[in-house]
C-alpha cells in the first residue's frame, strides 16, 4: 500500500468514526465523545479503537492525516492532542440542527416517512443524518407533505436548495429552503399572528367598554339582530303520506294563517310551522288543544273532530328555550 493510499485509508476510518451514521450504533465511540464536554477525543484513544488497530495507525499518524482533508468536518484542540466534530453531536435528539438543515414541502408517496425521505435526499444531495417529521396537535407523527432534513455537511444545504432548479425536481416539484430562512418566515408569521391577536382583543375591549357605558342600547341592538321568539310551532300526528299543501289547509281550519312550513317529508308525521306573531302561535295551539282533531287520511284537509285527545289527535306546542335556538341555528345553515 502506497503512502497516499494509507493516508486515504486512515482519513476514511477517522471520518467514519465521527460520522452521524456510525454514531447511531457505535456505543463505544459515543461514550468517548460524550465523556468530554466539548466532544474531544484524544488521538491516543483513537489509535486503540478496533479499525485503527487493524491498520496499526499511530496517534501522530492519525493527527497528520486529519490535517490533510478532515478539518472541514473535524477540529483540533489547541494543543493538537485531541480532535472533535465541528457539527455538535446530540444523543437521542428530536430536533434538527439549523445550520445543517433544510425545510422541504411538496413530498408525496412513496416519500412519506423518515427512511424513504432520507434515501431520496442521500441520493440527490448527500448523506442525510436526521429527518424530522413534526408531530401534530395531539402529539403524534402524521406526515403532511413537509419535514426537516439534516445533512452531514453544511455544503449539502446549498446543494439541496439548488435542487429546485434541476431536472431532478421536475417530477418531484419540491419547495426547499434553508432552516435559517424557514425560521425567519416563522418569526414573521408569529409576529403578525400576535399583532392580529392584540387587534382582536382591542376590538373586544372596545365592545365591552361600550356595553358598560350604554347597556340598554347594546341589548336593543342584540334584540334587533336576534331571531323572532315564540313564533315556531311543532306539529305532530299528521298522516305520514299527506302533502305540505294538505297539512297547511288542515291547520288553517283554526282560523290562523301560517306564514311558513318546513318541507313535509313523506313518511314523517311531524313538521314545524312559523306564524306571524307569538300570539298567532299560541292561538293555533289553543285551538287544537280545545278542539281535538284527527287527520283520517293523506287527503284529509278538514280533520275529524274527537271528543278527547288520544294518540291519533294533532299535537301542537310552541318551541321555547334551547329547542327554539336549535331550530333557528339549523334554519340559518340552510
From TrEMBL:
UniProtKB keywords: RNA-binding
Domain RRM: start-end pairs: 100-176
Domain XRRM: 226-334
Keyword RNA-binding: yes
Keyword RNA-binding belongs to the record: yes
Annotated ranges, domain HTH La-type RNA-binding: 1-94
Any one Gene Ontology molecular-function term assigned to this protein's record: telomerase RNA binding
Any single Gene Ontology cellular-component annotation: ribonucleoprotein complex
Record GO biological process: RNA processing; telomerase catalytic core complex assembly
Domain of life: Eukaryota
Classification via SUPFAM superfamilies: RNA-binding domain, RBD (SSF54928), Winged helix' DNA-binding domain (SSF46785)
Protein name: Uncharacterized protein
Amino acid at each position: 500500500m502506497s503512502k497516499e493510499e494509507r493516508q486515504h485509508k486512515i482519513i476514511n476510518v477517522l471520518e467514519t468514526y465521527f460520522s452521524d451514521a456510525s454514531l447511531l450504533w457505535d456505543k463505544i465511540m459515543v461514550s468517548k465523545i460524550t465523556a468530554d464536554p466539548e466532544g474531544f477525543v484524544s488521538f491516543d484513544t483513537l489509535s486503540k479503537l478496533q479499525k485503527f488497530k487493524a491498520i496499526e495507525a499511530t496517534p501522530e499518524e492519525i493527527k497528520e492525516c486529519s490535517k490533510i482533508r478532515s478539518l472541514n468536518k473535524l477540529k483540533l484542540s489547541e494543543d493538537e492532542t485531541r480532535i472533535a466534530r465541528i457539527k455538535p453531536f446530540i444523543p437521542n435528539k428530536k430536533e434538527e440542527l439549523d445550520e445543517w438543515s433544510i425545510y422541504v414541502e411538496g413530498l408525496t408517496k412513496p416519500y412519506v416517512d423518515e427512511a424513504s425521505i432520507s434515501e431520496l435526499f442521500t441520493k440527490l444531495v448527500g448523506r442525510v443524518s436526521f429527518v424530522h417529521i413534526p408531530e401534530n396537535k395531539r402529539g403524534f407523527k402524521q406526515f403532511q407533505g413537509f419535514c426537516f432534513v439534516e445533512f452531514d455537511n453544511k455544503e449539502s444545504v446549498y446543494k439541496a436548495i439548488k435542487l429546485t432548479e434541476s431536472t431532478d425536481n421536475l417530477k418531484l416539484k419540491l419547495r426547499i429552503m434553508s432552516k435559517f430562512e424557514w425560521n425567519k418566515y416563522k418569526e414573521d408569521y408569529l409576529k403578525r399572528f400576535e399583532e392580529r391577536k392584540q387587534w382582536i382583543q382591542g376590538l373586544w375591549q372596545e365592545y365591552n367598554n361600550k356595553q358598560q357605558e350604554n347597556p340598554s342600547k347594546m341589548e336593543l341592538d342584540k334584540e334587533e339582530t336576534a331571531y323572532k321568539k315564540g313564533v315556531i310551532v311543532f306539529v305532530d300526528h299528521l298522516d305520514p303520506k299527506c302533502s305540505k299543501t294538505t297539512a297547511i289547509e288542515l291547520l288553517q281550519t283554526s282560523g290562523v294563517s301560517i306564514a311558513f312550513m318546513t318541507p313535509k317529508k313523506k313518511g314523517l308525521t311531524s313538521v314545524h310551522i312559523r306564524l306571524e306573531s307569538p300570539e298567532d302561535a299560541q292561538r293555533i295551539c289553543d285551538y287544537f288543544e280545545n278542539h281535538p282533531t284527527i287527520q283520517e287520511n293523506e287527503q284529509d284537509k278538514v280533520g275529524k273532530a274527537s271528543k278527547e285527545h288520544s294518540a291519533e289527535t294533532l299535537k301542537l306546542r310552541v318551541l321555547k328555550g334551547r329547542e327554539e335556538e336549535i331550530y333557528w341555528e339549523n334554519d340559518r345553515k340552510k
